[in-house]
Every structure is written in structure tokens, then in C-alpha cells.
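anyone seen this seq b4? input:
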Amino acid sequence: MKKTYQGSCHCGAVVFACETDLAAGTIRCNCSFCSKARFWMILVKEADVRIVQGEDALTDYRHTPAHMPEPFLHLTFCRHCGVRPFSRGGFLPMMGSAFFAVNVACLDATDEELASAPVNYPDGRNNAWEKPAPYHYL
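predicted toks r here
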């Protein structure tokens, strides 16, 4: 069941709210960026995320995967503390809209909610998002 969560970066300069269902599954991707950053995410439709404060505190690193013709991901970081509360992505067919990849660790969720959230391990390293990664170590 969807619930509204508040989240923030470490220093609190960036605060956001999102409506999502952690029980529907979270993601730990094995692509080079996510694995190096140990990014634990949940995909949320753009309409279900609201930046409450600190849009001006965000720094944007644009990433274009090799198979994409234009910048697809905006990996945003707080310029004060360096934490990435979310990334923004373009239109994703499976979601029917643009999306946010929300950093689960930045949500003000209970320990029980985080511990019980299912984790999916897609094979982003090989662009095989529909398949599980052959290994996961995150």
C-alpha cells in the first residue's frame, strides 16, 4: 500500500516527500555507478514526488548510458553534504512517465519498513533490466 514518506539529505538542506510502497520492492542495481555508490533505490513516478525545500542546493551530474541517445539520468547531490537523495530520469515505458529513483536510505521510514522491503537485483551492468544480476554484493 502506498504511503507518503518524507526524506532528506544528511544536512537537511534538501527535503522531499514521495508517495510509494516499499513493500512493492526496492532495487539495488549492479551498473558501475550504482554499485560504486551503493545506491539503494525505489522507482517513483514523477507526479508522486515533491521537493519541499532545497532545489537550489542540488548539483546535477548527467549520465547517458551507452544505449541512450541523450541525457537520461540526472544524478542529483546536495552541494553541502554530498548525499544523493534521488535521481531524476526521463520517460520510462514500464512506469508510463518520467521518474525519480529515490534513495531508500534517505527516507524517514521505520527500521521495520526498511528491513522488510524486498530487494530486487536487476542486471543494469549488462543492460538486462528484466533479468536478475548473476551476482549481488551490495
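DSSP finds two helices and twelve strands in the chain. The radius of gyration is 14 Å. kinda curious what u guys think
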